[in-house]
């Protein structure tokens, strides 16, 4: 309700005109006050302008007086210059006799002064003055320069500091000489003025008043400056006086206005109350996402407020039929709303939930009651519509979370129970009822003590924990063990959780049994410790004896090389001479055959002794190799050529297969040849006539591969691991058909490892054998070279 409407209702016909008159009076009074204030303001402004003009006039007059004084000083300086020219007096004497003049010099002498000096700057200023036709000026260093030409054609300068020709000033004033861009003067530098008479703003409330006057006609200007505050004491007094003049009528008018205002406040009070109530109601409805509705049973019309219309997907408030309202309700819920209104007429109130038909669909709650208007006794349904979508969604989320929680609890394979703050049973899973034999017994609301007593029949024993008073170890009648833990909840409730620890208990019992057994064993070990100590002592003695015997054997074999080889060399030499009949025929062929048998047996015996001595040297740590940079094919080819005759005698094909362009290696030529001879000799020994032996030399990765493959009898798989052991052969001693010491493979393996390589052995019984060794291309390993290539 507006202010005008409220007045019209209280006094029909008279209130509107009264309000218009009051408004006219207010505007008239306001205009009068503004006119008076404007007149007083103009008066104050005029007086202020007059005072400012007087201040500027005073400064300008002061500037003219000081300018005249400067002109007088310039005249005095010029007279001194002419006195020098006319009388020939000393310039220094004249300068001392002239007040304020520091020096009198010719323009030529001043120009000859050093750069940056006062005389040099004065000379430049004097030259500029002559060009401009002036006699007085200001140098860059703040000196007043007076120039005059004598009758002899000389230009003479009089030099004086600007401060000496200007009168002293107070701290709030400044006198400034201005000559183009050059300035000098007395007073505060911050008050340096412009070149015109007037006021200059130097802050929010400060001004600078300046009065200027020319010196000696034109060119040089003198300005006098002083602070001129924007507001002075006179201004404040003037404002106070004019304020008092304005206050009297304003107070009178204010009294009249207060009376009128009081009357207006009384008129609009009711309207303000109504507006405030409506505003608060709208705020509450909007914040609660609610709206107001009314339904008249007689007219079957429904009134919706703005908030209710918005919630129902409609624009604006107003009346509509019940069917129009139901059109905004989901079809499945329309009968529910009709029934709610019908019953509401009987019971006097209504409450129903429904979903809207428009998208996005929202959930609404309809609440109301039947009221009766006292004027015409009309029965009206009235109430609110609430948007409860978020509440329904929250309830759905809570229900879903509860279902998930129940599913998780039921999925837990141990017993679980939840109690409220009064220790009454709220929820339990199936395992809780089964484990404690409480199926069909448990009910929601049962006390904690009652349930504990009821479960006692299913327990064999119950042991409280030593470390946690809320933990109990329970033994069930079926042999299982449960660890029951009870913990308080945030709302002072209680949770009971059980975990099957049967395996842990059994393991603990087994651990105790094993601990007892270990203690028993420890006692037995203590008893046998004395016997073990005695056996250890005897073992050490026997080991020392064995090591001494082995060392003696190795030393004996190594030192017997000369004694064993010398007679064998003689036997072999003489038998070779006899078999070759170097000194004539033997006569009988049998002697030649016997000599050949002696030579063959001697050579075989020498080879066996050499192998035994080499193995003894290796075991004694006295065997060394001498690596040189060689072609890996050379020692292999030499060995094949040396033994080829032996293979041909047995009708065995011996083939050498080498890869071209093999890299050189660091190796012992003799050792490689010996390894190949050993391997090929073994292959010939175990290969029958008509067989084939292939010697292969090739590069495999970072190594040179040397392999000997035969088509002999082969080796059983179970015998392969022991063939590289000294004196080992495949066949036993009773049925051996092949001669030899069994040292060939052991020597080959040792020589290969001394080079930093390894031996490879593979065989198929009845098909043949391949024995190979590898040699690193990059040379021997560092540890082999540093250890002098010794291998024990």
TrEMBL record:
The first-level EC class reads transferase
| Record keywords, A-Z | Kinase, Phosphoprotein, Transferase
The Enzyme Commission number assigned here is: 2.7.13.3
Q: Which InterPro entries match?
A: HATPase_C_sf, HATPase_dom, His_kinase_dom, HisK_dim/P_dom, HisK_dim/P_sf, PAS, PAS-like_dom_sf, Sig_transdc_His_kin-like_C
Q: Which PROSITE patterns match?
A: HIS_KIN
Coiled-coil region list: none
Q: What is this protein called?
A: histidine kinase
Q: What is the species of this protein?
A: Hyphomonas pacifica
Traced from the root, the source organism's taxonomic lineage reads: Bacteria, Pseudomonadati, Pseudomonadota, Alphaproteobacteria, Hyphomonadales
